[in-house]
Structure to design on (532 residues):
């Protein structure tokens, strides 16, 4: 055992008393101040983006903290202070520097801090958990404490837009990879979810897109080949829960944003068919089939041909002018749909109308001198049975044709006549500008006499009886078919404009030439004999 003398014991008692005094003093300094909200709570809970009044109760229970030289409140950097509403319950003077409020005695010196109230007005732009620091100074001694501030998330991510026009509403897309890139302008989450659903609401793909660094962009690559053809919907799902276990997130934690676009990986089919021909022009239609999206453009392999109507539709009308009569032209049409899929038609050939002109050298009509012209009633020509007549060579029938159908528009007079009757066939002329067809019994012909793309006159050879042609003639208004030779469609044969010399016409000339040759030989021989 260590023995202590009286002086040591006395010193130990003094030290002990000193330490007790220090502890007591520290208890007065750090434990004698209560800082709360005016309601007695130890924290504040407010909503983001809203100016709120902060009331703080400061109560010093011991003399050391009752006479203060200053109180300082420091707000988080993301807070905005409204100075108009800053004050205290005691006569004071305060100053504001950035987000720091300093309260001092208005008249200088110290002020009593027994149960005083401090208030200010501030707003938080960002949800989350923050600390408000309150410090007080008594002479050279400064103490401080924190009050928690919970700022609720009251908004959801906004400004969700497609960036860089990667995916457009009702845009058309194909291929194995398509970049989806979106941007968000507020409450940026760490990632977003892309859900791809078809028109029936069935989910086909789910993609996770992470935030690109510190930017507001989120992107992921979409494989369109795994998706069904047609309309699909991109649903962007954003979860912006940010508060954790303390505080609340009173916004909708999941927000969605939709855009519908078209998946099209199918190559369209292209078919072309003639719709009208004249002596100098061809009009035909390109029909696109099997296209999920609408066609964008169609191009033609002939420089003179172009689309004249229906651009961007499934049926596009193409025309070429300045052509030669009775000439065949070939076309290939390539159409590209809105998703970039291209396809070409097979080569198709169409023939311009017969050249017309003269038969036997005249122009503007037939060279034949007609012995009889019949004028049937209009009702007979437009009836379903037509007008039937037995006709001899050089007999014809008058037909009046209108520009806009069977009985409307401007009127033109044309004729159907019998040019020649052979043993088994008849050559029929349809004029003003003559078109000649050779028909056997049962064969027929339809002729567009005014070049408007519609057949106007129909003629059929029923039989050849007693040297006469039994013909049926009708007025029609039917669109010219793709198989027609120019303005004529016939089961017979179109006869050339050139009029061949008839057999036997050359015989008299040949006889005369032969006689002249014989005479020349005879005369020459006689002269030679005489000179002997």
């Amino acid at each position: 055992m260590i023995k202590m003398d009286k002086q040591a014991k006395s010193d130990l008692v003094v030290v002990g008393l000193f330490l007790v005094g220090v502890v007591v003093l520290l208890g007065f300094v750090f434990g004698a101040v209560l800082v709360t909200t005016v309601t007695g709570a130890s924290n504040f809970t407010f909503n983001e983006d809203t100016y709120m009044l902060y009331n703080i109760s400061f109560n010093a229970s011991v003399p050391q903290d009752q006479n203060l030289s200053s109180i300082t409140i420091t707000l988080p950097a993301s807070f905005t202070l409204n100075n108009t509403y800053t004050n205290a319950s005691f006569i004071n003077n305060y100053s504001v520097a950035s987000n720091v409020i300093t309260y001092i005695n208005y008249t200088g010196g110290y002020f009593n801090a027994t149960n005083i109230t401090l208030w200010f007005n501030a707003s938080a732009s960002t949800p989350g958990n923050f600390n408000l620091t309150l410090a007080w100074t008594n002479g050279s001694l400064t103490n401080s404490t924190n009050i928690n501030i919970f700022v609720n998330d009251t908004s959801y991510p906004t400004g969700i837009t497609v960036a860089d026009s990667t995916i457009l509403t009702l845009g058309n897309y194909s291929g194995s990879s398509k970049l989806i890139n979106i941007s968000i302008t507020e409450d940026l989450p760490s990632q977003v979810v892309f859900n791809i659903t078809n028109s029936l609401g069935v989910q086909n793909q789910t993609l996770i897109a992470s935030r690109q660094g510190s930017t507001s962009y989120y992107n992921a690559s979409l494989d369109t080949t795994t998706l069904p053809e047609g309309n699909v919907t991109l649903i962007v799902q954003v979860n912006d829960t940010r508060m954790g276990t303390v505080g609340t997130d009173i916004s909708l934690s999941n927000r969605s944003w939709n855009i519908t676009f078209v998946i099209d990986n199918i190559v369209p089919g292209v078919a072309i068919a003639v719709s009208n021909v004249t002596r100098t022009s061809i009009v035909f239609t390109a029909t696109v089939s099997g296209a999920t999206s609408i066609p964008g453009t169609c191009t033609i392999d002939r420089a003179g041909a172009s689309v004249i109507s229906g651009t961007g539709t499934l049926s596009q009308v193409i025309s070429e002018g300045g052509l030669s009569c009775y000439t065949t032209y070939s076309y290939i049409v390539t159409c590209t749909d809105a998703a970039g899929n291209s396809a070409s038609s097979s080569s198709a050939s169409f023939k311009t109308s017969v050249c017309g002109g003269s038969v036997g050298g005249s122009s503007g009509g037939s060279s034949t001198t007609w012995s009889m012209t019949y004028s049937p009633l209009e009702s007979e020509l437009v009836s379903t049975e037509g007008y039937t007549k037995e006709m001899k060579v050089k007999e014809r029938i008058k037909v009046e044709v209108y520009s806009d159908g069977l009985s409307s528009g401007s009127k033109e007079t044309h004729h159907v006549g019998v040019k020649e009757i052979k043993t088994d066939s008849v050559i029929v002329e349809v004029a003003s500008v003559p078109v000649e067809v050779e028909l056997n019994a049962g064969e027929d012909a339809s002729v567009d006499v005014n070049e408007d793309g519609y057949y106007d006159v129909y003629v059929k050879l029923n039989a050849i009886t007693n040297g006469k042609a039994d013909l049926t003639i009708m007025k029609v208004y039917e669109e010219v078919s793709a198989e027609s030779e120019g303005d004529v469609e016939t089961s017979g044969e179109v006869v050339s404009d050139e009029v061949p010399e008839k057999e036997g016409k050359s015989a008299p000339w040949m006889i005369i030439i032969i006689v002249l040759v014989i005479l020349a030989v005879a005369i020459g021989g006689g002269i030679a004999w005489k000179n002997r």
